[in-house]
Design goal:
This protein is mostly helical and 260 residues long. The protein is 68% helix and 0% strand. It has one domain (5-248). The termini are far apart.
Amino acid sequence: MMPASAWFAALPWMLALAALAWVVSSLKRNAGLIDIFWSLFLLAAAACFFVQQPAPTPRGGLVLALTTLWALRLSIYLAARNWNAPEDHRYQAIRARNQPGFVWKSLYLVFGLQAVLALVVSAPLYAAIAAPGGDAPTMVDLAGAALVLAGIGVETAADWQLAAFRADAANRGRVLESGLWRYSRHPNYFGEFCVWWGFFVIAAGTGAWWSLVSPLLMSVLLLRVSGVTLLEKDIGERRPAYAAYIARTNAFFPGPRRAA
């Protein structure tokens, strides 16, 4: 395996991408555009790990391909959705708390911080790409890849269903309760959860159990920090119809509907 310094060698590239995201977002006065770049941080890291390998392995190629598929799909979707949209209320709150001078403060509070978090999340990518391998992926590699692909599939389906729902003017003020959204209030986040546990399965197959830090961190972020908890903090006040949806539907893990 490559030395640990090869892991940290990706950080300057990720910080450079964060600086570019900061410039773009500052010009647009929309810090929420960082979401477009999040997956690209991980893609930059995976590419950096791969090119540092003296002899690329089939496992490394598989992980880079999966990361590319995941990152480009998510980044393109978020760019199409958010590029000309108002700043997300989560980032509006961060902006309000850090005035005056939020533009400069956001360079480290939002953009630099997310690049560093992405480096931690990239642990299983580094472990899987850097580990020696045989002539073909193992059964564990394929099992982890299947989980990653399933997560990407769930994310894609959930995002498509939500976009189609919002595009219909008749749904204005209503809550999406069909498709995957019937069984989970955040199926797109559940898909993301599956992606990173899938990458961990591949890394664990090489003995890199230490990379467990990545899916654990992502689980905490999705459930307790920037995901479910923050999105639903005051949603009952902003969207009263959502309260009944909460009463009937699991927050994260898909499951049967409950009586209201």
